[in-house]
Specification:
By secondary structure, the chain is of the alpha+beta class. It has 2 domains: 130 residues, Response regulator (Rossmann fold, 3-Layer(aba) Sandwich); 203 residues, no CATH class. The chain has 8 helices and 17 strands. The longest helix is centred in the middle third of the chain and has 20 residues. It starts with 8 loop residues before the first helix and ends with a strand.
C-alpha cells in the first residue's frame, strides 16, 4: 500500500481550502496527463489534491490527456472548452509541461477562471522541490506574501526599469502597457493564475523598449540545469540581437534559432518579461518554476508575451535567471545586490 501522498495532505488541504477557497458543493476541474506520475512526488501530490478536494465537500472533475511534446504545447480543444467554462471555482492543472502560455490558459483567464498549476515536469527528476517548498501553513504563505505584494505593486504601477548586476548586467526597459503577476500564494481573484510554490513577481515588458545587456548566471530554459558558464545576451529595441558565452550559450542560440525558423518569426527573440523572486527556500536547480522564485534573483522571459496580454503569440517562452540583482523602478531601488529594500 502506497501512503506517501499523506505527507502532502497538509499542503493540499491548505491549497484547496485557504489559497483557492474551494467550498462544499463546488465542481473543481483538474487537468492532468498520463506521465505526471513519473516525476518525483508529483503523483503523490495529485492523489493528495483529489483527496483534499473531496474532503472539502467538493467534487473533482478529472480530465486526463497524453503529454504535450514541449512546454506550452497547446491543450486539446475539449480541455480548452472545459477550462473556459469554469468561471465559478478554481482549475488545478497537474501536467508534465508548463501550460501558462497556452491558449487554453489565456482564454480561461479572460473568461474569469482561476488557475492553480501544481508542480510537475522535469524538475521532479532532479530534486525534491515538491516536498521542500510546498507550504504547510497559512503563516508560511503569508511570510512570503507581504514582500511579494509590495514588490508586485511597484512592478504593476511602474514605467521605467533599470536592471544591473555586478557581473555586467545593465539593461533598461519600459513597463506598464502589459499585465503583471505577483505570485503571493492566493488564487481568489477571477482571471488569476497562481503557481505553487509562491514567491515570484513578473511583468510584461513594453515591446520594443528593452536596450542593454543581461548576464544570465543562474539558469536558462530550455538549456536545462544550473549554468556552468554565464550566457551574455544583448537586446536592442526589444529584440535579442546577440548571444555570447560557452557551450550552454551555443545551445541556447541553436534552440532559439530553430524555433525562429520553424515559426518564421523573429519575435521569438522579443524580450517579453522581467521579474524577480521572493522565496527564501528556493534554490537554483535549472528549472524555471523554482529558479524564478530564488530570493533576490532576477529573471527575463524571451518570446511569447500573450499571457501578459501582448500580441506576440509563440510556443517559445524561455525564462532566464540571473543572481544578486539590482532593480530600480521609476528611480526607486526595489532590490540591491539581491536584498530587497521595500
Amino acid at each position: 500500500m502506497d501512503l506517501r501522498f499523506t505527507e502532502l495532505m497538509q499542503s493540499t488541504k491548505l491549497m484547496v481550502e485557504d489559497l483557492a477557497m474551494v467550498k462544499a458543493g463546488d465542481e473543481v476541474l483538474v487537468v492532468t496527463d498520463t506521465r505526471i506520475g513519473e516525476y518525483y512526488g508529483a503523483g503523490e501530490l495529485f492523489t493528495a489534491l483529489i483527496a483534499s478536494i473531496c474532503a472539502a465537500g467538493a467534487e473533482p472533475i478529472i480530465l486526463t490527456i497524453t503529454p504535450r511534446e514541449r512546454a506550452n504545447g497547446e491543450l486539446p480543444k475539449l480541455v480548452r472548452d472545459a477550462m473556459k467554462s469554469k468561471t465559478d471555482t478554481v482549475i488545478f492543472t497537474a501536467l508534465s509541461y508548463e501550460s501558462l502560455h497556452t491558449l487554453a490558459n489565456i482564454e480561461a483567464r479572460k473568461n474569469g477562471a482561476r488557475i492553480m498549476p501544481l508542480p510537475g515536469g522535469s524538475m521532479g527528476k532532479l530534486d525534491d522541490m515538491i516536498y521542500r517548498l510546498l507550504p504547510k501553513t497559512k503563516a508560511e504563505v503569508d511570510g512570503i506574501s507581504g514582500l511579494t505584494k509590495r514588490a508586485g505593486e511597484r512592478f504593476r504601477n511602474g514605467h521605467d526599469v533599470r536592471v544591473t548586476t555586478e557581473k555586467g548586467t545593465d539593461i533598461t526597459m519600459k513597463i506598464g502597457e502589459l499585465a503583471s503577476s505577483a505570485q503571493d500564494g492566493y488564487c481568489t481573484t477571477p482571471g488569476k493564475t497562481q503557481f505553487v510554490p509562491t514567491g515570484d513577481i513578473c511583468v510584461g515588458v513594453n515591446p520594443g523598449t528593452a536596450n542593454g545587456r543581461v548576464v544570465i548566471d543562474g539558469s536558462a530554459s530550455p538549456v536545462g540545469g544550473p549554468l556552468k558558464e554565464p550566457i551574455y545576451m544583448t537586446f536592442k529595441d526589444g529584440l535579442l540581437v546577440d548571444i555570447q558565452g560557452g557551450a550552454e550559450a551555443q545551445r541556447y542560440k541553436e534552440l532559439s534559432k530553430a524555433e525562429a525558423e520553424s515559426e518564421s518569426d523573429p519575435k521569438v527573440y522579443s524580450l517579453a518579461e522581467i521579474g524577480c523572486g521572493t522565496n527564501p527556500g528556493a534554490q537554483i536547480m535549472g528549472e524555471g518554476l523554482e529558479d524564478e522564485r530564488y530570493y533576490g534573483g532576477g529573471h527575463i522571459g524571451v518570446g511569447d508575451n500573450a499571457s501578459f496580454g501582448g500580441d506576440n503569440k509563440s510556443e517559445w517562452h524561455a525564462d532566464c535567471v540571473f543572481l544578486n540583482a539590482t532593480i530600480e523602478i521609476d528611480g526607486e531601488l526595489i532590490l540591491k545586490d539581491g536584498e530587497f529594500l521595500i
